[in-house]
Specification:
5 helices; disordered N terminus
Length: about 160
Amino acid sequence: MLAAVATPTAGSTPTRHESSLVGLEGSVLQRLNAIRARYGLLPLRTSTKLAAAATQHSREMAADGYFQHESADGTAFFTRIAQWYSSKGYGYWAVGENLLWSSPSVDSGRALSMWMHSPEHRANILNARWREIGVAAVHATAGGTYGDQPVTIITTDFGVRR
């Protein structure tokens, strides 16, 4: 449950109030798995359930102008993720989360660089127990924490069930 922040660039303009960034999401996963491979770790598989949890959270943060692991109503991140990625029927279940908000022009290389320079984010990326991931990125013009600036918000939800 970790977050990184980069200041948005003044003068940037998104194409819509909020738009999904499928290409950025795929590139984040590709780079993240390349980093894991360099450390002898298994690649993470995409989970549609974790991706749904990540998407919901990125969109909620953009819509409500906040940046936290907890939901806007105060629900803990692991409880929120469990709504999508259930522990039922599994003897072991664990989840983690990395968050980032930055200028709309942030790319996967910059996002992974910021996370790898943060001990807590790095620990999540290099955690050998994770097996699955959901990645969600949105561009938004958001108020609140974001000061009505255009931003990119990325949520990565990590998980393992067995």
